[in-house]
Write a structure and sequence with these properties.
The complex is a heterodimer of chains A (209) and B (474). Chain A has 209 residues and is mainly alpha-helical. Chain A is 75% helix and 0% strand. Chain A has one domain. Chain B is built from 19 helices and two strands. The chains are: A mainly alpha (209), B mainly alpha (474).
Chain lengths: 209, 474
């Protein structure tokens, strides 16, 4: 029961991120989504493994990453996404459509592993697709990073299916890699701003054939 | 001990480079690390081919082949950097050299990982560590290239992670995703999930390798990165990504899904060659041209894997020769940039007159990369063609011929014009001499190319055979 609640909350937060235009709100919503996410390993498969994973998620995704993104945001002094590629209304509509598609696809796939909840796979796919949509439909570098992170959250959900199988070492490595990735992106955002005066990737169009 | 020297030691030295302030000491450390790495790598030549350090790390023939390639390239580029970094003394090189050394460690990890999750981690870290290297000049263009590289590669890597998870689900009866276990119990894998996993892994690692249509970062990144970094990326990092793609093919081969995966490889290969052929015509920037050339050669590699049989061997042979040849041309382009202060092809004319040694290497590198006999690339391209004819993929033969001839025309127009054309009148004020550190790496690479392509020594031949046997090659 609690697991289903958490899963639906995660998808719901993803949709809210999709519809929000303020960068600060987006980052906070992402932190909230990650906080809910950190509880899911315990709900799926209680044990020592789940605790370590939860602590890792809280430290990296709830504390470090949002702070890093806020730091980048302060440096580049932008507050909201101007003129997304696809309008907010349309993005939300498309997001709803993608969630529907995720549920439809998941219902067609039979899993060789025992599922804890039959909501897990569709929710994971929904969050991945929401993240992807965010990544491709926005221009601000920070928004793109948030989109990438939301996508990673979806992949994390999917990985819960395999919680009792994959070694902890690998999972922590994956978390760390994602963190370093965001760190590097944050630094590059800063460079973009220094050179172009705004962290909008609209400016990045010099290189083409 | 060897394990530490290959993976831990470069990271340790990266820390040292970061904290020691003198540029001289930094360069010595860089050279020394490259030397130690190469020495340890060569020491494996005389030992049994399959080495297992622990469950996660070990070698098979393919891993060793790529490790040798990485190690030689890194050593050569370290020598080149000694001279190159003298040029740009304005800024501290600490982060640059630190990332470079860590990159060596993570590339080694790619070649050694025997666990698909660890492989993913290693591939992801090569992406992250190479991003600061591309951004070395911190110009608007290089930042743009870095951002595109980071975003597209990260997306590819996220898909790769998803593919790895799908693989784990398909491997539920096996309980682990250690490569050896998966290969041993390949028939137990659930086929539908394995297919899904293979597609995601192919797209994910293919992005890293630069196969079309996921190649869009490549011309930008290669165009804006410092030439030694371009050499390392087009030679070593793509070889690591190729290894990952090869593993995917290997798993599918053992699971009996060849029928499913081969057309995908052939499609990606032909598409990459087509894209390269279209964009190489009328290319105005030397390094971007090299980027498209890399897309072409990655396409040939994928095509070789897709055709199977003898083409697998040819593909591996091609991978090695292409890596060294690309590095050679990239280092030549570095020399040209130092001499002409431009990457635009129209500004670089009459190289033979201005810089005789560099000019000769430019033409030689071009001869190798375009597939002239007697060099290795000619032989591997011919073998792939033969396999395509033998397996009766006639439309592949047609397109392969078509694109290769278009590319041949495109390259010759650009490179011969650069080498033999008339030097531009507006001569830059500073005409520098070619120094030892600019030429020595080129000589080494040419010698290596000779031994990897023309006169192939026995141990290397065995290594190629062993690696090809992993995919049922001859």
């Amino acid at each position: 029961m609690w697991l289903e609640l958490a899963l639906i909350l995660i998808v719901f937060l993803g949709v809210v991120i999709l519809g929000s235009s303020r960068l600060g709100t987006m980052i906070q919503l992402f932190a909230a989504q990650s906080l809910v996410l950190s509880a899911t390993p315990w709900l799926v498969h209680p044990g020592k493994h789940a605790v370590v994973l939860a602590v890792g998620t809280v430290v990296i995704k709830v504390l470090l990453m949002p702070n890093l993104l806020f730091w980048a945001m302060r440096h580049v002094s932008i507050r909201r996404e101007v003129q997304p590629l696809i309008g907010y209304g349309k993005t939300l509509l498309l997001g709803g459509f993608l969630i529907g598609a995720a549920f439809l696809i998941s219902s067609r796939m039979d899993l060789p592993v025992r599922e804890t909840s039959n909501l897990l796979v569709p929710c994971a796919f929904s969050v991945i697709m929401i993240g992807f949509l965010l990544l491709v439909s926005r221009f601000k570098a920070i928004t793109q990073v948030v989109g990438y992170l939301v996508m990673e959250n979806g992949i994390f959900l999917f990985a819960l299916l395999l919680l009792d199988k994959t070694p902890l070492l690998v999972e922590m490595g994956i978390l760390l890699d994602i963190f370093v990735g965001v760190l590097v992106m944050g630094i590059v955002i800063n460079h973009i701003n220094q050179e172009f005066g705004s962290a909008s990737t609209v400016n990045l169009t010099n290189l083409r054939d | 001990m060897e394990l530490f020297l290959l993976t831990g030691f470069p990271v340790l030295m990266a820390a040292a480079v970061f904290f020691l302030r003198q540029d001289g000491i930094r360069k010595i450390i860089l050279f020394f690390t490259g030397f130690v790495h190469l020495f340890v790598t060569i020491s494996f030549w005389h030992r049994p081919r399959d080495v297992q350090f622990n469950p996660f790390l070990g070698f098979d023939a393919l891993g060793q082949l790529v490790l040798n390639l990485v190690s030689v390239l890194f050593f050569v580029i370290a020598i080149y950097l000694i001279g190159y970094l003298k040029e740009k003394r304005k800024r501290s090189n600490g982060i640059f050299l630190g990332c470079l050394l860590c990159l060596l460690s993570s590339m080694t990890l790619v070649t050694m990982s025997r666990h698909m999750g660890l492989l993913w981690i290693a591939i992801a870290s090569t992406t992250l560590l190479s991003a600061p290297l591309i951004n070395y000049f911190r110009k608007p263009q290089s930042i743009e290239a870095t951002w595109k590289y980071l975003l597209i590669s990260s997306l590819g890597i996220a898909l790769g992670l998803l593919g790895t998870l799908f693989l784990a689900i398909s491997a539920t009866p096996v309980k682990t995703i250690f490569l050896a276990d998966i290969l041993d119990h390949a028939p137990l894998l659930s086929p539908s999930w394995l297919k899904l996993s293979a597609i995601f892994l192919l797209v994910g690692y293919g992005t890293k390798m630069g196969l079309a249509p996921m190649h869009t970062w490549k011309p930008d990144a290669y165009g804006e990165a410092p030439p030694p970094v371009g050499a390392l990326m087009s030679g070593a990092i793509t070889a690591c990504a190729f290894l990952a793609v090869f593993r995917v093919a290997q798993i599918c081969f053992h699971a009996g899904l060849q029928e499913f995966i081969s057309p995908l490889f052939i499609l990606l290969g032909i598409l990459s060659m087509a894209i390269a052929a279209v964009f190489i015509m009328g290319q105005k920037d030397l390094n971007r041209m090299l980027g498209y050339s890399s897309v072409e050669h990655m396409g040939i590699l994928a095509l070789g894997i897709g055709l199977g049989g003898g083409a697998v061997w040819a593909s591996l042979f091609h991978a090695v020769n292409n890596a060294f040849a690309k590095a050679l041309i990239f280092l030549v382009s570095g020399n040209l940039y130092q001499g002409f202060r431009s990457k635009k092809i129209e500004n670089i004319q009459g190289v033979i007159h201005r810089f005789p040694a560099t000019g000769i290497f430019l033409v030689l590198g071009f001869i190798v990369i375009i597939g002239f006999p007697p060099f290795g690339i000619f032989y591997s391209e011919l073998l792939i063609l033969r396999e395509a004819i033998v397996t009766q993929h006639y439309w592949v033969v047609f397109l392969y011929f078509l694109f290769l001839s278009v590319l041949f025309f495109g390259y010759s127009r650009i490179v011969l014009g650069m080498a033999l054309g008339r030097p531009p009148d507006n001569v830059p004020v500073e005409i520098k001499k070619e120094t030892f550190f600019m030429i020595a790496p080129l000589v080494i690479l040419l010698v290596v190319l000779f031994f990897s392509g023309v006169f192939v020594p026995g141990p290397f031949y065995d290594l190629l055979d062993g690696a090809a046997a992993l995919l049922g090659g001859r």
